[in-house]
Amino acid sequence: MSEQRRTSFINFLAPEDSDPMAWADICREETWQGRWVALDDCAYNAAGEATAGLVVDYDDNLAELCARLSAERRKSCSVVFCPPAESAA
Prior knowledge:
- The chain is an alpha+beta fold and 89 residues long.
- Helix content is 27%, strand content 30%.
């Protein structure tokens, strides 16, 4: 992840009136495909899987993402992997 993108996303704060995005919509966003995504204000299904949330950070590297979340004292986030888009091969 570029330093510019990392810095801008660390300082990202969703507007208070933002609604959580559905997980299916998050997975459609090219920005997050193939990356670890930190979600806050999550909704969960009966199996305990996040089904919606506000994206607060993301990274290709899980350890780096978790380190930033820890440094920001974000303790209530769910971290999930957003699968890459299926190739059209």
